[in-house]
Design a protein that fits this description.
- The structure is a single chain.
- The protein is α+β, with helices and mostly antiparallel strands and about 90 residues long.
- It has one domain.
- Helices cover about 25% and strands about 40% of the residues.
- The protein contains two helices and four strands, in the order αββββα.
- It has helices spanning about 5-10, 75-90, and strands spanning about 15-20, 30-35, 45-55, 60-70.
- A four-stranded antiparallel sheet has the order 2-1-3-4.
- A hairpin with a 2-residue loop joins strand 3 and strand 4 (about 60-70).
- The longest helix is centred in the C-terminal third of the chain and has 17 residues, at about 75-90.
């Protein structure tokens, strides 16, 4: 699996977004970017979403990884999954 840095060296534009839930959130609440929190202590350690956007030669594809609300969020794993999904779309 290629990394973000490897893809950037190959000429891809790469953007990674990490979205998390607030502690005590309601089930219907959508995840929010970390900069939207006033205090990191408000971030729920479980659940979340990682979105990767790839751009190359004018083509744009994205991939996402959603972490179950029962599992602890893992940035590296989320990036790896979302990156793989975005790359598969370029191969189609």
């Amino acid at each position: 699996m290629k990394t973000v840095v490897q893809l950037q060296h190959e000429g891809y534009g790469v953007s990674v977004y990490h979205l998390r839930h607030r502690k005590g959130r309601k089930r219907k609440d959508i995840p929010r970017p970390l900069y939207d929190f006033d205090n990191v202590d408000d971030v729920n350690p479980k659940g979340g979403k990682t979105l990767v956007v790839l751009i190359k030669d004018g083509e744009c594809q994205h991939g996402e990884a959603i972490c179950c609300d029962l599992d602890h969020y893992n940035k590296a794993e989320g990036v790896s999954i979302a990156l793989g999904r975005a790359l598969k779309k370029f191969d189609k």
